[in-house]
Design the sequence.
């Protein structure tokens, strides 16, 4: 048998209650739902559903990426294309969310 680990998550109590009710309707336990989610992350190497935020639009994201790419090209770091650098995505999203919070 595989070794298992415990992982704790803090949840909003209302969201937890609503999600647990859905799991019950689906006939699965919350633990099974979490394991299904993790399994899909591993299989798809991505979040297995669309993540959308009304405060972020693709035009803003592409504009920010273009500006960052130009900055990299100016500094001589054009060898690592920005589109392949997944670590910058969260910085870009944080920047966009920060901009939308100000408006």
Sequence:
């Amino acid at each position: 048998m595989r070794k298992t680990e415990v992982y704790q998550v803090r949840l909003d109590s209302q969201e937890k209650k609503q999600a647990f009710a859905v799991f019950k309707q689906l006939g699965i336990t919350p633990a099974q739902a979490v394991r299904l989610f993790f399994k899909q992350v591993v299989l798809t190497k991505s979040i297995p559903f669309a993540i959308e935020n009304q405060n972020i639009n693709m035009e803003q994201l592409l504009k920010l990426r273009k500006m960052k790419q130009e900055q990299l090209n100016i500094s001589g770091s054009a060898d690592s294309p920005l589109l392949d650098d997944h670590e910058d995505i969260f910085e870009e999203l944080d920047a966009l969310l920060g901009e939308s919070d100000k408006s």
Summary: The two ends are 53 Å apart (CA to CA). The mean pLDDT is 79.
